[in-house]
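sry for the spam today, last one i promise. C-alpha cells for design, 138 residues
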C-alpha cells in the first residue's frame, strides 16, 4: 500500500502539468504587438469587432469539446462552453453579431492566422511558432 501511495505521489506532478496547458492568444505577425485580457474578452464575446488598429478582427475558435476551448474561456471570458454558446446564440438570433469561425484543430487555426493579418485565435504555447505572434498570456 505504501509503495502504491509513493508511486501516485511520484506521478502526480506529471498528470497535473499535462492537464494544464499553457494557453496563449495569437495573431498574425503583422497584427498588434499586445492585447489585454479585456480586449481579448471583448473580441471573443463580440463586444468589439475590431483590433486596436481599427481593422475588423477575424476570430477563430477551437471546437467547444476541446480542452483548450474550455480552459481559454474559463481564463479569459469567465464562461463555460455552454454559456459561450448561449451568448452567441442570442447575439446571432438578435442580429448583434456573428459567431467566431470554429476550426477543427490547432494546426488549422495556426495556418489560418498565419495567412490573415486580422486573424486572432488561441493555442497551447507549444503549438505557437514563428508564423504567429503571441499577444496575450492568460
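last one done:
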Amino acid at each position: 500500500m505504501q509503495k502504491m501511495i509513493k508511486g501516485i505521489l511520484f506521478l502526480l506532478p506529471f498528470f497535473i502539468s499535462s492537464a494544464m496547458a499553457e494557453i496563449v492568444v495569437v495573431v498574425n505577425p503583422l497584427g498588434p504587438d499586445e492585447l489585454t485580457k479585456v480586449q481579448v474578452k471583448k473580441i471573443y464575446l463580440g463586444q468589439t469587432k475590431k483590433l486596436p488598429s481599427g481593422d475588423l478582427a477575424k476570430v477563430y475558435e477551437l471546437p467547444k469539446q476541446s480542452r483548450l476551448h474550455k480552459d481559454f474561456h474559463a481564463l479569459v471570458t469567465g464562461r463555460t462552453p455552454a454559456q459561450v454558446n448561449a451568448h452567441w446564440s442570442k447575439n446571432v438570433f438578435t442580429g448583434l453579431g456573428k459567431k467566431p469561425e470554429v476550426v477543427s484543430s490547432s494546426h488549422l487555426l495556426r495556418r489560418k492566422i498565419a495567412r490573415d493579418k486580422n486573424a486572432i485565435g488561441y493555442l497551447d504555447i507549444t503549438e505557437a511558432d514563428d508564423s504567429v505572434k503571441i499577444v496575450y498570456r492568460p
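Confidence is low (pLDDT under 50) at residues 9-18. ok im logging off now
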